[in-house]
Specification:
Length: 85
């Protein structure tokens, strides 16, 4: 899984936990969903940190691809190639 995929998975699992009935909150399944979401969020954070500190020798194409994936995962608009904004 890529960092952005971990990010999206964490959001999805948190959504499942949020959608549960009030009487189900805090039960074993709820705790499992939250723990799994936390693992995915931690892995996304590690991947994002690694990208931010990537070795300058990494290929420009890889950095562009992964950067675009992070923007999509975070719901940030991706400028069209050639746009200044």
């Amino acid at each position: 899984m890529t960092g952005p995929e971990h990010y999206r998975e964490a959001e999805k699992l948190l959504g499942y936990a949020e959608a549960r009935d009030a009487e189900q909150r805090g039960d074993a399944e709820d705790m499992s969903l939250l723990a799994e979401a936390q693992v995915h969020a931690t892995l996304a954070l590690a991947a994002g940190t690694a990208l931010a500190n990537a070795d300058r020798s990494a290929s420009a194409e890889y950095v562009r691809y992964d950067g675009a994936e992070w923007r999509r995962a975070a719901g940030v608009a991706i400028p069209l190639q050639g746009d200044d904004d």
